[in-house]
């Protein structure tokens, strides 16, 4: 024990201890200096304002600014400019280390696509809610026509043309609706549709404020060339059917088909 204490008090031990401490200090100093160089300690740059910069100009914008950028999200803004930076992280004028990555949020050049929902047979209120959920807009000029189903969506249109559910359309698309307003007390004569194509029959029904009901094609049939050979109710000479009622149509490609059902049925009876 005395020998060990004597060794710790010896000049040789103290000399080596001092050398070890000096070496440790030098090593720590070198590590700290290396870390300063590696991390660019004390070297900062001010974050510029990226807001409004076009996506195509970002590379030239950050040139010589000792910064990097990455786009992490895009937002569709129908009213704002397209393809520009709208937000950044970190914010402008904040001091950051050189080569720091700035995260950007930009507006998309094109609106995202959404699936057209099925609005037919929905109530007008339901249709408005569905359109809002899908990011679509209901047109301001909803058209009401006589129909047995009051306040029911009968057709959905985009730019005046019928559009089926399931089709991809740009978000924000305006959808016009044709809605039933119930049957009028006014009576109309049922026109004769015999010998007309389906499209011709629709036009003639519209002239009389009537609607096409069930469609029955005799197989095989070319739906574009097939002609009406029977209708229920049949043509009348008296005002015996309510405006907005439906007429069931039977179509065939056979030229010899001449069956006509002249029974009149009032849907309100």
Question: Descriptors for this entry?
Answer:
269 residues, alpha/beta, 5-stranded mixed beta sheet, 3-stranded mixed beta sheet, 5 helices, 17 strands, rod-shaped, disordered C terminus
In short:
The protein is an alpha/beta fold and 269 residues long. Helices cover 23% and strands 29% of the residues.
Architecture overview:
With 269 residues, this protein is α/β, with parallel strands linked by helices. It contains five helices and 17 strands. The protein has helices at residues 2-8, 11-39, 58-62, 124-133, 198-207, and strands at residues 44-46, 67-75, 85-89, 95-97, 100-107, 113-115, 137-138, 143-145, 153-158, 161-162, 168-170, 174-180, 187-188, 211-217, 227-232, 241-242, 246-252. The strands form six sheets. Strands 7, 8, 9, 10 and 12 form a five-stranded mixed β-sheet that branches. Strand 9 and strand 10 (161-162) form a beta hairpin. The protein is rod-shaped and about 135 Å long. Residues 258-269 have low confidence and may be disordered.
The main β sheet shows up as:
5 strands, mixed
Helical proportion, percent range: 10-25%
> End-to-end distance, in Å?
122 Å
Q: Helix tally?
A: 5
What is the rounded Rg?
40 Å
- Average pLDDT, rounded to a whole number, is 84
The general outline is rod-shaped
Structural class: alpha/beta
Spell the H/E element sequence: HHEHEEEEEHEEEEEEEHEEEE
pLDDT under 50 segments (min length 5)?
258-269
Number of strands: 17
β-strand percent reads 25-35%
